[in-house]
Amino acid sequence: MGLLDIVPAGVITGDDVKKLFDYAQEKKFAIPAINCTSSSTVNAALEAARDQKTPLIIQFSNGGAAFYAGKGIDNKDQHASILGSIAGAYHVRAVAKHYGVPVVLHSDHCAKELLPWLDGMLSADEAYFKEHGEPLFSSHMIDLSADPKEENISTTKKYFERCAPMKLWLEMEIGITGGEEDGVNNESADKDALYTPSEDVYEVYQALSPIAPYFSIAAAFGNVHGVYKPGNVVLRPELLEQHQKFVKDKIGSESNHPLYLVFHGGSGSTEEEIQTAVSNGVVKMNVDTDTQYAYLAGVRDFVLENQPRLMTQVGDQSKGPDDESPNKKYYDPRNWIRHGEKTMYKRVQQANSDLGNVNTL
Ligand SMILES: [Zn+2]
Predict the structure, then answer these.
(1) How far apart are CA 290 and CA 27, in angstroms?
(2) Could you tell me where the Basic and acidic residues compositional bias lies (predicted)?
(3) Cα(240) to centroid of ligand 1, in Å?
(4) 3-state helix/strand/coil string of 281-308
(5) Measured between alpha carbons, how far is residue 7 from residues 10, 20, 23, 137, 165 in Å?
(6) How many angstroms separate the CA atoms of 304 and 291, rounded?
(7) Strands, sheet with 178-181, edge to edge from the N-terminal-most edge strand
(8) 57 vs 59: CA distance, rounded Å
């Protein structure tokens, strides 16, 4: 039975998300979560998934959501981030099913000072639920990993209780992802804090599992956001197997992978590290930095190659000052932006390949 016999195309929620992640664990692949900041980047990711016949996770970061709404809108009290994530969600909902692939619609890291953003999205989920019987989003991430562990777990639990009646998925983080992302800087974090102990992962499981099964854990195993010179921090994806075994033994689970795990800060990881993570029950891997760069590459190369056509509205400068051919088809954003979409498309497909997520429908 294929994935599309189990879940429908388009945005999926609740039990369908769980079915997707169970299917991924069983077939030993993970799904890339592509950070998107515009309808253009959403479409590029969807097109890549469609052509490779794979499920997809689309996610909006806090800053990415604000950009989606427009930088001209004031983000006081998270106003723009709330608006932008909702606008993005409606765009994805409108087009996703026409690409024929299941899509998990997700919001990325939400730290303590950004909680009004999560509150705003949850209000939108509740309103959508009233009308359609499912939340607007498939899932959200809460990330209180910078706060004391007890506070992280108890606040996460409180939010999970709000999500549960809608079968809304919640991803949480325990332990610290190094580096810098979206204004959260952990570049000087204590190295030990970059590896989450199994006891902490189990503590999260104990707090959340009595409420609902719809949660995943981003446990730190030396992950770093962004791309840095190698050698600074050692990635240890084999630790994830220890967490799975620890929880399995504690709860007497029949499954070797009782946890749904998430891989953050994976840009620049080796194929082997990614495969070890996936074989240890990682179902989602975040991809942001690499697709940002890929999107630029297409636009950059187009502009550099066509520079003589882009300096004026009329005239190819390489043909001399008297040339009068129109340049409209060069500066039309549908042309140069499309080049960015094409290079991003390729990078999304590479992420799929790395994660074993090819022809998985
Ligand atoms: Zn992350």
Answers:
(1) 25
(2) 319-332
(3) 17
(4) CEEEEEECHHHHHHHHHHHHHHHHHCHH
(5) 9, 7, 10, 16, 20
(6) 20
(7) 184-186, 178-181, 224-225
(8) 6
Question: What's the pLDDT band for 170 if we cut at 50, 70, 90?
Answer: very high
Residue type for position 41: T
* pLDDT tens string 318-331: 999 999 999 999 99
Task: List residues with catalytic annotation.
Answer: 108
pLDDT at position 1, please? 83
Tell me, yes or no, if the pTM score tops 0.90: yes
Using 50, 70 and 90 to split pLDDT, how confident is the model at 224?
Answer: confident
Task: Compute how many other C-beta atoms are within 10 angstroms of the C-beta atom of residue 48.
Answer: 27
How many angstroms is it from 265 CA to the middle of ligand 1? 6
What is the rounded CA–CA span in Å between residue 266 and residue 224?
Answer: 7
| Residue 255 pLDDT > 80 | yes
The 10 Å Cβ neighbour count of residue 326 is: 12
The answer to whether the Cα torsion of 97, 99, 101, 106 is positive or negative is negative
Ligand 1 centroid to Cα of residue 161, in Å, is 23
